Amino acid sequence: MSEEIVVQTRALSKVYRDFWGRQKVRALKALDLEVHRGEVFGLLGPNGSGKTTTIKLILGLLFPTSGESLVFGKGANDVSKNERIGFLPEESYLYRFLNAEETLDFYARLFDMTPEVRQERVDTLIKQVGLDRARKRQLQEYSKGMTRRIGLAQALINNPDLVLLDEPTSGLDPIGTREMKDMILRLKDEGKTVIMCSHLLADVQDVCDRIAILHQGELKEMGRVDTLLKVADVTQVRARGLSKDCQNEIREVISRHNGELLEMDNPTTTLEELFLSIVRDSEARPGRRAKVEPPADGGST
Amino acid sequence: MVLEHEILPYLQWLLGGEGNALGALPRFCLVMIGLALLALVGGYVFAAARHGMLGGGDLVFQTVSSGFREMLELSPRRVWALASLAMKEAWRRRVIVALVVFFLILLFASWFLKTDNQNPAELYISFVSTATTYLVLGIALLLSAFSLPNDFKTKTIFTIVTKPVRAGEIILGRIIGFTIVCTALLVVMALCSYVFVNRSLDHEHRVEENSLTRDESGGQLLGYKGRTSLDAYHRHDVLLDAEGEGSTADGLGALRNFGHSHSIEVHGDGHQVLHAEGIMQARVPRWGRLRFLDRQGVEKERGINVGNEWTYRSFIEGNSQAAAIWLFDDIDESLASTEGGLEVGLIVEVFRTYKGIIGQAIGGAFQVRNPETGVKSGLIFFDALDDKILDIKIARKLTSTDNVDLDLFQDLVSKNGKLEIVVQCMPRSQYFGFAQPDCYLRLPDASPAWNYVKVYLSIWVQMVIVTSIGVAASALLSGPVAMMFTVSFIVLGFFRDFFVEVATGVSYGGGPVESLFRLVTQMNVVSPLEPSASTSLIKVVDAGLQGLMWSVAQVLPDFSAFSTVGFAASGFDVPIDRVLQDLTTCLAYVIGLAVIGYFLLRTREVAK
């Protein structure tokens, strides 16, 4: 396995059986995929498509029915591979009776870190995820977003080379989602490999380099996001400062070349961008209220 | 006290030797090899069914080889991290409630425990030790059986097994963590119960001044005799010197009754009875080897069986040549008491064929004999009450049956350090019953406080074993099922002797199926079954079940044997050999169960 390939699965299959060994659900069918060093890889699919099963098989939380998966060239059951892995589960399965500091210190000790290194990592990560003020509070008092952040911190405690994120933006508000996506991109900039699985397509589109789409346990499509999303037979032009005459002239050129003008209009921003700009503005100028425009027909508001 | 199984020297117990065909260590190795083979075969069959013969074999090989490799990669830091987590989890689960329950028990125990018992120390020590045992074992059971299953249920196990944590570290961490928590509880309970026992048994008397009479001889005042007041359901006879004082060290004062005595001092115009002494004792016995002579004087291994009773003791008939003879080894002057002779303890079980005067002791006599030369002392008489410990002092200077002066160590101890004590019953048609530990040479007493610690050490051993069973079982089973499994182990462990009797066919009524058949058909346990096809089937099934039971019995911990409460309650020191044997057995169980727990967790799908 080349140094560039971090995760590799070969004909990886998983069939859930009942106590008597009878087949109940075929969760994954002969999955072949490779994840390269330094890329953000997305596993997409609807609920029950096998995304989380794939993650669990890679981590060794489940045993494959057939096939194999290799992480850094080591089998999924090889515990030593976990030295270089960080995992954020779908829900942050953490010990609720510990506080943030104790939680990170506990997981750091599982990596055999010395007390000095542990202290430094814990302090850095708590500040990085913005939980400095709540470090002494027990996790059972945390909100969903705070719990996700501490979950992310434990996934990064060992400065892993490979980070697996299961539904990382699930349940987060738009600000939390944006922060999570920014963090993923930051990890990529640091040269880490990220595998994330999600059914929230917009989030995956924003951060992933390559994606694999699963459905009913089968791999349906895999490739680079930009390549997959490109609509080959449509040309998009975005320009600023065009006059009405110029726009009409463009229409005539398209028509002369037997092209079909699909749309020429002012583009819209995304709802996420609008939401974030309003929140930033509100934080910068607290107390300012939105102006309510009266209706055009002169009626009451 | 009752000692049904001889306590072997530690190394002899461990490695085997005379009187112990197979040592504990070889037996442990055999059991582990047997279990390993069983696991290999069972694992291969299961894996082959799923993955084919070659695939199954490969899977088993990979599991075993990676298992041994991982055991060598255990990290103490990770184990300690997991142990700390287990301790925090136990604290969160409010184990402190066990202490509250214990304090409540101690608070109200005095209402129900009466001190009119002839041996109140035995009652109190047994009570607090039993209460402690049940509470600590219960806490250990609940903590260990539900911890891992809870982690699986809440999926917190995901964030642990995705770190470089070996399954063995998870198992060991939990065992160590819960052991530390329960040890802390046990220490608190031990301290509180020691204070409770001492405070409860402490009491006061007054000297009844008007009962004091002068003890004179030849016109010379030797001392005073009298009695104390009646307090705590008893009084003492009083013996004072000429100055009016009595020290128990000199054999004076408020004489021994109810298992203790008091020193007495002059206080103003009267006397003051000081605190009770010797309530808690730790006698250190040196045991010998017992053999019997029947009524014709013929040597036998055992005495008479006086009926279908417990066969721990066998009996000698009174007013006959029947005798119980103990042979002691390695006797020299270093064992001499402060008076220069030897102190002997004797426990007699009296069997009366006629009641006689109820409460009156039965007369007996013993002699000291040189087993080499046959020289023996004259008869030394004693009065025996049933199941009472007699403390007999053998003087240095004795006379023989021919009225020749004898020195105990020069004339009655053989050249190779052997000494015999011969005990006989005097009245006709009465019997004395003896077991080997019933006669002993009494060495200087050990510390009662340290003896108390050793008793609680035996409770600690039981607790550690229960914790290990619970953690190992919970690696595969759900919480309630793991708890039931552990409870079954404990119950079977407490009744292990009976379990083995059924497994080996020694007990009446046959095996399990035959017993059930007798129960349902209301047959007695002695009559043989009618020969028939169904009887043959019952016998065949029982043979299989008994084989299985015998196999299970090899790994069952004998919880009733672990307890050393009987030693302290009866006022005996717990031998250090016994303590070492229990600790070694505990270590063996922890190692074995940790390995089993490791493979159960390793071969389990965490996310299923």
Question: Summarize this, please?
Answer:
The complex is a heterodimer of chains A (301) and B (608). Chain A contains nine helices and ten strands.
Describe this structure in words.
- The complex is a heterodimer of chains A (301) and B (608).
- Chain A is α/β, with parallel strands linked by helices and 301 residues long.
- Chain A has two domains: 225 residues, P-loop containing nucleotide triphosphate hydrolases (Rossmann fold, 3-Layer(aba) Sandwich); 55 residues, no CATH class.
- Chain A contains nine helices and ten strands.
- In chain A, the strands form two sheets. Chain A has a six-stranded mixed β-sheet with strand order 6-7-8-3-9-10, with helices on both faces. Chain A has a four-stranded antiparallel β-sheet with strand order 2-1-4-5, with helices on one face.
- The longest helix of chain A is centred in the middle third of the chain and has 16 residues.
- In chain B, 48% of the residues lie in helices and 19% in strands.
- Chain B has 16 helices and 20 strands.
- Chain B has three domains: 283 residues, no CATH class; 69 residues, no CATH class; 160 residues, Jelly Rolls.
- The two termini of chain B are 54 Å apart.
- Chain B is α+β, with helices and mostly antiparallel strands.
- In chain B, helix 2 packs across helix 16 and helix 7 packs antiparallel against helix 16.
- At the A-B interface, helix 2 of A face helix 2, helix 3 and helix 6 of B.
How are the SSEs ordered, and which strands pair?
The complex is a heterodimer of chains A (301) and B (608).
Chain A: E1 5-17, E2 23-36, E3 40-44, H1 51-59, E4 66-71, E5 74-75, E6 85-88, H2 100-109, H3 115-128, H4 144-155, E7 162-166, H5 174-189, E8 193-198, H6 201-207, E9 210-215, E10 218-224, H7 225-229, H8 244-256, H9 271-284
Parallel strand pairs in A: 3-8, 3-9, 6-7, 7-8
Antiparallel strand pairs in A: 1-2, 1-4, 4-5, 9-10
Helix pairs in contact in A: 2-3
Chain B: H1 10-15, H2 24-72, H3 76-92, H4 96-112, H5 120-154, H6 158-161, H7 167-201, E1 213-217, E2 220-227, E3 237-241, E4 253-257, E5 260-267, E6 270-277, E7 284-287, E8 289-293, E9 299-300, E10 314-317, E11 323-328, E12 342-352, E13 362-369, E14 380-384, E15 388-394, E16 397-399, E17 405-407, H8 408-412, E18 419-425, E19 430-434, E20 439-443, H9 448-474, H10 479-494, H11 496-504, H12 512-521, H13 533-555, H14 559-562, H15 565-570, H16 576-602
Antiparallel strand pairs in B: 1-2, 2-3, 3-4, 4-5, 5-6, 7-20, 8-9, 8-11, 10-19, 11-18, 12-15, 12-19, 12-20, 13-14, 13-18, 16-17
Helix pairs in contact in B: 2-16, 3-7, 4-5, 4-7, 5-7, 5-9, 5-10, 7-9, 7-16, 9-10, 9-16, 11-13
